[in-house]
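Lecture notes, part 5. Sequence design as translation. It can be helpful to think of inverse folding as translation between two languages: the language of shapes and the language of residues. The source text, in structure tokens, appears below.
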């Protein structure tokens, strides 16, 4: 069982955060600029997350204006988080069971990263490729 910290080591540790008082439009612009599908909310303290799913369900389908609605009104505040020591398998299980695509990573209460479903899939595929190569080398020797 490999820890989530291995995924974090492969990522650039640039966390995108916005104030809860920023507008949904500002978040969408930032997400587009960085080609990401979620942004963390809160500057000193992690208060929530805003995702494309939040936008679709809480803004568009409600007929609200992204230029007027503040993130604190539509962000997901009850966050599911993981630690760097949690296993990748645990992370996958959490994402599957709770139908979420992004998990903030906290260590001793401090935000140290975020893992997406794409990060997890990429890691698992690369890990399986390495295992196959190792087994092939073992068989050939």
């Amino acid at each position: 069982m490999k820890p989530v910290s291995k995924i974090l080591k492969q990522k650039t540790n640039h966390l995108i955060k916005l104030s809860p008082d920023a507008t949904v439009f500002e978040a969408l612009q930032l997400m587009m600029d960085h080609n990401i599908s979620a942004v963390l909310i809160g500057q000193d303290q992690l208060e929530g997350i805003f995702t494309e799913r939040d936008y679709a369900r809480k803004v568009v389908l409600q007929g609200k204006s992204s230029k007027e609605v503040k993130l604190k009104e539509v962000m997901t505040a009850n966050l599911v988080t993981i630690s760097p020591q949690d296993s990748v398998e645990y992370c996958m299980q959490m994402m599957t069971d709770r139908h979420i695509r992004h998990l903030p990573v906290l260590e001793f209460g401090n935000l140290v990263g975020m893992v997406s479903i794409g990060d997890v899939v990429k890691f698992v595929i690369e890990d399986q490729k390495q295992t196959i190569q190792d087994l092939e080398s073992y068989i050939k020797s």
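The translated text above is only one of many valid answers, since several sequences can fold into similar shapes. The chain is about 45% helix and 15% strand.
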